[in-house]
Amino acid sequence: MRKIFNEVASLDKKCYEKFSLNEELLMEHAALALKKDIKKNIKAFDSTVLIVCGVGNNGADGVTLARLLQNEYKNIHIYIPFELKSQMAILQYKRLKLLGLNFIKDLNKVKKVDCIVDCLFGSGLNKPLNEETNTIIDKLNEFNSYKIACDIPSGIDNKGVIKTTAFKANKTITMGALKLSLFTDSAKEYIGKLKVANLGVSDIIYENDSNMFLLEKKDLKLPFRDTKNSHKGSFGHACVVVGCKKGAGVIASSAAFNFGAGLVTAIVHEELQLPYYIMQSHKLPSNVTAIALGMGLGLYDKNELKQILNTNVAKVIDADLFYEELLLDYLNQEIILTPHPKEFCSLLSLAKLADINIDTLQNNRFEYVKMFCKKYPKVTLLLKGANVIICQNDKLYVNTLGTSALSKGGSGDVLSGLIVALLAQGYNYLQSAINASLAHTLVAKKFQGNNYALTPKDLIKGIKSL
Ligand SMILES: NC(=O)C1=CN([C@@H]2O[C@H](COP(=O)(O)OP(=O)(O)OC[C@H]3O[C@@H](n4cnc5c(N)ncnc54)[C@H](O)[C@@H]3O)[C@@H](O)[C@H]2O)[C@@H](O)CC1
Ligand SMILES: Nc1ncnc2c1ncn2[C@@H]1O[C@H](COP(=O)(O)OP(=O)(O)O)[C@@H](O)[C@H]1O
Ligand SMILES: [K+]
Q1: Which residue ranges form the domains of the chain, and what is each CATH number?
Q2: What is the pTM of this model?
Q3: Where's the YjeF C-terminal domain (predicted)?
Q4: What is the pLDDT of residues 154-181, one digit of tens each?
Q5: Whose CA is nearest to atom 37 of ligand 1?
């Protein structure tokens, strides 16, 4: 996993004050990282590279890049639509002028471009884009070129919100370290592949401590069975409470069994047609080790619910339970909650933390997650979305590995099943949420069929061979 920061200006400052680097040095490295990626992806000398530079230091990165790319390609077009403001941009521009590079005045005259580098705005975007900038960005997005965003796609603000439009990158090369603004659901549409540019000192020196992390494939710890002298009881007994919408519980049960739970029982009111390896019972078995509850619940007897919730074993809570006030009684204990944004809005309202709509939540996902986990530090919260956020107390993790193939009824039920399987097998709450989420998203990523075709069954099948 990699550390994520709210901002990196303080990390840059540390480089200057503690390690005697300076702004020019960092910028040269920023531009070098951009150059390296372009050289790797654009091979032919005959190519055209368009560098679009804004008024601040993001623009200065672009101007510096233009200098480094001179004579590397036949056509380097530099487009500076507004008057430069930052001292570094003015200095780099002066150097560029002396080298005699090609500035363009009218974007409409550019017909074919192999690579576009967006250096309009970076971390300094602090107000809505004006009409002219919107038009420039929309025009850039129309080109069928390899598109790189310098630091962050222009148009995404420092909270990760897109007010009007944003540059749609194939790759974002972010400077120094990962910033939280890169990981909102809406930013995911624009970021493309994400790479961190080294600014001249190693990560260990550049970065400070952080409580926020980006999850990576290599973080996944599958529940491999290392013990030889084992029996089914060694891997726990997961119980899934099946509600009115029975499919949800059936999917979760099946996912749990396939992810290693030694025994799985579906808690049902009436006998269902289930895979033969899933047991059925009207009440919780005495040797239950973990419970999944809430998915497809519908109307359910409150006393029965309380009885299940009062059982002293690990639990993952999903879906309909986020609309039940009685859940509040269980939030001061260790428990995993897996709401999607609408359910989380309900939860925030029940907890009297906020009365907000989904848009407000989506524009402030990290803030609300942190606020909730501050009030309930024992809860492990997994907020679903294009980028999943997992938070416990003051530690926050982001999983960006999911794809829109997962935007289907039943995907979340599979996730609950995976989580309860890991809880049953003895993973702690945080590790259960993290590893189940990683497995869930990596299976979707690996899926061989068309991305509209993934079913819960495919997900469960994919779990077998991750
Ligand atoms: N140590 C550093 O400062 C480093 C900075 N680097 C680059 O510098 C960038 C940050 O530079 P800046 O802080 O100058 O910020 P930006 O280059 O993102 O832009 C800030 C400038 O744009 C103006 N502005 C903001 N929003 C606007 C809007 N909507 N419409 C019109 N003008 C607007 C501001 O008034 C300011 O003049 C980073 O994203 C990164 O690319 C890198 O070179 C690495 C080192
Ligand atoms: N565009 C997307 N990119 C990545 N993951 C997604 C996307 N859309 C949905 N998901 C994931 O799919 C799952 C959907 O869960 P949920 O909404 O609870 O569905 P259901 O209740 O029907 O099972 C979540 O884990 C969510 O993060
Ligand atoms: K940019």
Answers
A1: 2-13+20-210 (3.40.50.10260), 218-463 (3.40.1190.20)
A2: 0.96
A3: 215-466
A4: 999 999 999 899 999 999 999 999 999 9
A5: 56
